[in-house]
Amino acid sequence: MTMTTWQAVATIAAVSLGTMLTRFLPFALFPDSRRPPRTVTYLGGVLPHAMTGLLVVYALKDVSPFSGFHGVPEAVAILTIVLLHRWRHSMLVSVAGGTIMYMVLVQLVFV
To answer: Which UniProt keywords apply (predicted)?
Structure first.
């Protein structure tokens, strides 16, 4: 199905407006001169950890210790992430290293 030119323009405009609104609205609601509400401060502290836990559960939901490679590539990748994070304290290095380790294991070792 193909969009007409006006449909494409309207879609791009709506997506641009939505993106700009979500980027600029927090600065309008919580300027530097005002402290954000305690709820917002609390959520800013706990949501990153909650999202990390959610991603771990989602990533491991289909791993079975009774079939395939018994979760060995996933366990090694998780161990790599933990060790890299304890060593460098960098989320980017940890996630990138764990992802690279997992892909190497799945593509080359556990074929």
So the answer is: Membrane, Transmembrane, Transmembrane helix
- When divided into structural domains, the chain yields a total of 3
81 in the same domain as 100: yes
Do 107 and 77 form a contact (C-beta atoms < 8 A)? no
The CA distance from 91 to 77, in Å, is 14
Q: What is the pLDDT of residues 11-24, one digit of tens each?
A: 999 999 999 999 99
Burial letters for 74-108: b for 16+ Cβ neighbours within 10 Å, e otherwise? bebbbebbeebbeeeeeeeebeebbeebbeebeee
69 in the same domain as 104? yes
Contacts of residue 82, Cβ cutoff 8 Å, sequence gap at least 6 = 94
Q: Are residues 104 and 76 in the same domain?
A: yes
Nearest to 79 by CA among 43, 61, 54, 105: 105
Q: Which domain holds residue 42?
A: 37-62
